[in-house]
Amino acid sequence: MKDLFGQALLDYHNGNYTEDIITSTSISGEDILPLPYLFRDFNEMPNLEQKALKLAKGNVLDVGCGSGSHSLYLQKNGLDVKGIDISKGAIDVARKRGVLNVKVLNLLEETETFDTILLMMNGTGIFQELVQVSKYLKHLKGLLKPNGQVLIDSSDIKYMYEDDDGGFWIDTNANYYGELDYFLSYKGEKETPMKWLYLDFKTLKLACETVGLKCDPILEGEHYDYLACLRQK
Ligand SMILES: C[S@@+](CC[C@H](N)C(=O)[O-])C[C@H]1O[C@@H](n2cnc3c(N)ncnc32)[C@H](O)[C@@H]1O
Q1: Which of these, 5, 7, 8, 92, is most buried using a 10 Å CB contact count?
Q2: d(Cα 114, Cα 150) in Å, to the nearest integer?
Q3: Whose CA is nearest to atom 9 of ligand 1?
Q4: How close is the Cα of 218 to the center of ligand 1, in Å?
Q5: Residue 64, ligand 1, Cβ within 6 A
Q6: For 91-117, what is the mean pLDDT?
Q7: Residue 141 · residue 133 · CB < 8 Å
Q8: What is the pLDDT of residues 189-212, one digit of tens each?
Q9: 38 CB less than 6 Å from ligand 1?
Q10: Ligand 1 in contact with 90 (CB < 6 A)?
Q11: Could you tell me the end-to-end alpha-carbon distance of the chain, in angstroms, rounded to an integer?
Q12: Per-chain mean pLDDT for the chain
């Protein structure tokens, strides 16, 4: 990984904002990811994220914290927060913005336990592909304190396969339709392609059941997105 995402966050934080990140996926063309969005404050966050922040309690792990927007809000409200991310640039920025407890760490290498674990901005993306979901869910379950909760958002992206006549062109012999290849470029450089998973609520709930987690819907967003809360059974 070249960490272009982290580089873009660093540029923005250091006042060198000239370009946005360009993304595309295996089923969609180029899209702009505006850097200011990655530095949003509470009022600029979608309802689902605001709701998750309001539900957070106790000591919190912000998984894939990026520039630390959610961690900062919680820290300012008196919660004990740890932000982790595999992007060194992102962790540098989160630290510079004032998040006190941050670490370059893969979720699968985290060992502490938490009352709340947050995975925001398509939190299931980190699972990468359907076959890996139970591994990540089992790991998350092991990081929960008694009565702890995982707050995670995602979307049912079936709508992306809809054609003009309202029919769907999903290839039923292919992998799960929410498994995408994700491409990112910044300032003309291409990041190593990665896998990014969108999970519909029903599939997430089923996967949770197989590993002994309860999965409740908390809120639906405006565009097939949702916030879910996972707890130990
Ligand atoms: C879509 S960004 C979201 C950033 C931030 N949560 C936000 O809402 O602005 C996903 C983040 O997850 C991080 N990430 C991806 N896989 C990870 C993993 N296995 N462990 C920790 N962080 C991961 C990426 O580096 C990236 O910063």
Answers
A1: 8
A2: 9
A3: 38
A4: 22
A5: yes
A6: 98
A7: no
A8: 999 999 999 999 999 999 999 999
A9: yes
A10: yes
A11: 37
A12: 96
On the CB side of 190, how many CA atoms lie within 13 Å of its CA?
Answer: 7
- Can you read off the two tokens belonging to residue 172? 């039923």
User: If DSSP codes are grouped into helix, strand and coil, which group holds residue 175?
Assistant: coil
CB 130, CB 50: distance < 8 Å:
no
pLDDT at 25: 96
84 ligand 1 Cβ < 6 A: yes
Burial class (CB in 10 A: 0-12, 13-18, 19+), 232: middle
44, two tokens: 């600029």
DSSP state letters, 124-171: GGGG-SGGGHHHHHHHHHHTEEEEEEEEEEEE-GGGGGB-TTS-B---
Look up the CATH architecture of domain 41-178+197-232. 3-Layer(aba) Sandwich (3.40)
pTM above 0.85?
yes
